[in-house]
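Figure 3 (text version): structure tokens given as input.
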């Protein structure tokens, strides 16, 4: 029997859990016609801040509202003081392995807002396809996308994603990964990629960006100038991961260059040579940059504000986090949060237990951890299965990055997350179930 004083506790299951939260049994009925949210007298934002005005219909408050047996909306007297534990709380989506229609990206930005994520890391291009339509180099998508009209993001698509995200407090950080992961770039830009050799003649295959030609850097200068104007965020992700040296090693022109530069046969020095020049090009556009951990591991000279993205070392990523922060760089963690890796059972628990500050280091080092990202790589993911694969597993990452580090009770989290998942389903997001059970309102399909 339910007391008249308010809901069963599990019905106001807040996710992610606020920093300070006190609810009383005093309940109020909500009248949609007369209800409004106002700013406190001491608020620093003026009433004309349109983003805040829109955001007022956002997340924690809506989670406090519950329906009684008669369908009336109620809310209990509640005091909340809230702020995020980490500043960078991101989701990476990969739109190269499979093209992701605009509708799917927007739906997931909506879901991100419900979970208080604030960074959309758009891994927009890769080896397999180049769907970003460049104004400066239209042939990149014309020749590099799966289809030049249906499988591309036009300038207005990109603008829409950025604006839709901005209204939900989400930054859009694009990733244009070089010198590796660039096969699709070569279709549209002649001589950008390194010709691979078999014995003494070209094999017809191509490797990473050719780092010994001035034309490569001229192209990057123009390309990143465009990117810096299209994407307003202060940061661009430059990749720099998984560079395969075998093609460089096979190429006689590159072998000669290695000798001239005194690099011997250490091709990580050639990679560093390329990345160093690229970083200078991007810095000239007044943008900061993020890179995958290999760039740091290979000893490239980096600007002090570079953000190092740790993804390797399952399960021993702690050493890398310690090294990156000991060197004074901001660190982002993704290693335990590669959500494209799936297994039978409740894998959200291990996702939930991973903590970005769980490594041996000083307090000053821990402060350099700016947050983390859940990554959903696209080899086996497209519009048909992206949303249920991502949610509610990404919600576990969301709470880890938002709530106080003492919030680690898995049983309590399970009860709240089941409710939160039902809330997403009620709002039309096909988030997959955690375990056996049911929602009061089941998913209605598309």
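Below: residues designed for each position.
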């Amino acid at each position: 029997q339910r007391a008249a004083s308010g809901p069963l506790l599990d019905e106001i299951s807040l996710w992610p859990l606020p920093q300070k939260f006190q609810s009383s049994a005093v309940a109020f009925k909500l009248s949609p016609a007369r209800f409004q949210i106002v700013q406190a007298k001491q608020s620093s934002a003026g009433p004309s801040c349109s983003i805040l005005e829109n955001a007022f219909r956002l997340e924690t408050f809506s989670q406090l509202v519950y329906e009684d047996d008669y369908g009336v909306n109620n809310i209990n007297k509640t005091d909340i003081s809230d702020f995020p534990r980490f500043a960078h709380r991101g989701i990476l989506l990969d739109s190269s392995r499979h093209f992701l229609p605009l509708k799917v990206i927007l739906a997931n930005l909506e879901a991100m807002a419900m979970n208080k994520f604030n960074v959309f890391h758009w891994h927009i291009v890769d080896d397999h396809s180049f769907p970003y339509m460049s104004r400066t180099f239209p042939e990149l998508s014309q020749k590099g996308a799966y289809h030049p009209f249906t499988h591309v993001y036009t300038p207005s698509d990109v603008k829409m994603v950025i604006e839709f995200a901005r209204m939900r407090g989400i930054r859009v950080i694009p990733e244009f990964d070089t010198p590796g992961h660039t096969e699709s770039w070569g279709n549209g830009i002649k001589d950008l990629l390194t010709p691979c050799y078999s014995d003494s003649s070209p094999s017809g295959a191509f490797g990473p960006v050719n780092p010994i030609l001035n034309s490569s850097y001229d192209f990057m200068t123009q390309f990143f100038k465009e990117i810096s104007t299209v994407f307003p965020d202060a940061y661009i992700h430059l990749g720099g991961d998984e560079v395969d040296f075998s093609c460089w090693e096979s190429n006689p022109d590159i072998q000669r260059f290695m000798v001239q530069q005194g690099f011997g046969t250490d091709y990580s020095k050639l990679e560093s040579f390329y990345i160093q020049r690229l970083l200078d090009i991007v810095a000239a556009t007044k943008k900061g940059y993020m890179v995958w951990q290999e760039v740091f591991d290979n000893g490239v000279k980096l600007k002090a504000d570079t953000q190092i993205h740790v993804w390797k070392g399952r399960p021993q990523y702690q050493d890398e986090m310690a090294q990156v922060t000991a060197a004074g760089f901001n660190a982002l963690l993704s290693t335990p949060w590669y959500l494209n890796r799936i297994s039978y059972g409740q894998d959200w628990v291990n996702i939930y237990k991973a903590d970005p500050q769980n490594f041996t280091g000083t307090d000053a080092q821990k402060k350099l951890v700016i947050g983390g990202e859940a990554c959903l790589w696209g080899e086996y993911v497209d519009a048909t299965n992206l949303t249920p694969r991502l949610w509610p597993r990404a919600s576990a990452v969301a709470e880890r990055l938002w709530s106080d580090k003492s919030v680690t009770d898995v049983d309590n989290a399970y009860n709240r997350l089941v409710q939160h998942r039902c809330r997403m389903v009620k709002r039309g997001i096909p988030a997959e179930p955690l375990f056996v059970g049911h929602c009061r309102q089941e998913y209605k399909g598309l």
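The chain has two domains: 20-81, 88-427.
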